[in-house]
C-alpha cells in the first residue's frame, strides 16, 4: 500500500505509475502483449489530450464497449484524468437497451470495437464521436485519430489535478430483473474509500498478479482489475474469452484472485475429474486419499472448529504428496488470498478449497455500495459467512432481516432517477440493500437471500431459493442454471438448464452428432447424472427445502437473454410467466414423462 492515501483515481495512478516504470502493468496470457507502467502512463497522457481535443470536458460521460483487452486501460484511465465519467456497457446488450443506457447516461463519446458500431447506430442515439479500436467504419475515428486530436498546449497536470473526490468517476448499470437498468453513480471518494478499506482487510502489494476476465461493465472486474491496479499497482492479465480463464490462471499463477461461484464449482469439478480419471491405480488411490484428508480438514474449517492434531498431521503429509501439486496444476500455488462473490457459493465448495489449501473467503457487495461491503481475510474467515462489514461502515437489520448500510461507500444516486434514489436511500443516509441477512455475536454476516425472492410455501415455511439452487448445482457441473419453484405450493420443484460448455465437451467426448440442448436434455446418461445430482443436493437440505420433481429444459439460457440478466441473476418473474405450462406440469398428479424425480438409489430406473 502507498504511504499516502489519495483522494482521486488520477492522483493514485500518477503515484503508482512512477513506482517502477519499467515493470509490466498489463499483459495477455503467454506475454503475447505487454505494457509497462511507463508505456501505460504515456498513453494515458496522450488519450487525455486527444479526448480534450475532440471536446470532452470534466463531467462529460464516455462509454467503452469492448472485450477484456490491454487497450481498454489507457483509454479508460485517460478519460478519468479529464474528470470525465467513464463506464463500460455489456457487449451483449441489445440495441434497444443500449440506446436507453447511453441516453440515460448522457454519453457523448463511445470507444468500441468496430463490430459494435452498427448496434450503436441502430439505437438512434446522437453521439459526438464513435472511436474504433480496430478499423475505421464510415463516420468513426480511429484511436490514432483520437490521439492526433491532442494539442501541444493541453495542460495534462492541471486537468487531472482538477478532478475532485465528489466527481462521478463511473456508472454501473444494474441489470434489474424487471424494467430498464439503473445507472449507479459512483464517485472518486466512494472508490478510494472502497480500495483502502478492502486493502486494510486483505492487503494489496505492488506487482500483485491477477486476471481480468469478467465484463468490464461489471463492478467486480472494475474493482479487482482496474481500480485496484490504479491505486496499488497490480499486474493485470487480460483474458478476452472467459472460457479460457482456467488456462490463463495456470499461465499466470496469480498472487490474488477472485471469481464467481460457478467458476469455483467448475474448478472443483475439474480436480475431481482429474483424480477419477487417473490411469495409474496406485497413484489414483494416493490422490483419492489426499482428497479425503482435505475433505476432513474442510469440514472442520466449515464448522469453525479447531482440527485435531492427527488431522493436521495427515493433511501435512497429503499436502506434501499430492495437494501442493494439485494447487500448482490449478495455478494457485502462489495465492495469498482468493475470494468468491457476486452470488452465494455452496459451503461445500468453500470447504473443498479450504481443505485443498487454497486461502479462500466469501465476500458480499453490490453496485450501490461501490462493490464490496463485507469481507474477511481467509485467515480470519468463517466459512459460510460473507465476513464482517468493512471498517467505516454501519449496518442494521430491519424487522424482516433486510440489511441497511450507511457510510462512505453508499452511491451518490441513480442517474436521472431521483424518486428511485430516495426509495433506496432514506433521509438519514441508510441504503436498503434488498438482501436478508443474519449476523452472529462476533459480527460475521450471512446472506439468506434477496428479500423479494424468498419462497413461502403452502405451510408458511420461509425458504431461500438461492440456497437450494446453489446446493444442488454444486453437485454436478452439468447444471448451468436452475430455478426453484415452491411459493404457495405444497413442495418444491425446479426447472433445470444444462451448462452449455460442460455438455458440449460431453458431446465431443462421446462423438455425438447432435449437441443441441434438446438432444442433450433427453440423453439418458445426462438425465441420470442430474437425477443423482438433485438427490445428492437434497441430502444436504432440510426436508421442506428438498426438490421433489424437476424438468430439464431443452434449451440453453444465455446471459442477457430472457431468463438471466447481464449480471447473471435469474429473472424469476419472467421465468414463471414464460414457463407457466412447464411449471404446472411439475405439480400434476400424473405428470408427463419429461418430469423427473431425484434418484432414489443405485438401481433407480430412468423414466423413458
Automatic annotation (TrEMBL):
CDD domains on file: VL_LC_FACS_like
Residues covered by the AMP-dependent synthetase/ligase domain: 13-414
Family: Belongs to the ATP-dependent AMP-binding enzyme family.
Cellular component, GO annotation: membrane
Membrane-crossing residue ranges in chain numbering: none
Record key words, sorted: Fatty acid metabolism, Ligase, Lipid metabolism
Classification via InterPro entries: AMP-binding_CS, AMP-dep_synth/lig_dom, ANL_N_sf
UniProt cross-references to Pfam families, sorted A to Z: AMP-binding, AMP-binding_C_3
Record-given protein name: Acyl-CoA synthetase
PANTHER family xref list: AMP-DEPENDENT SYNTHETASE_LIGASE DOMAIN-CONTAINING PROTEIN, LONG-CHAIN-FATTY-ACID--COA LIGASE
GO molecular function: long-chain fatty acid-CoA ligase activity
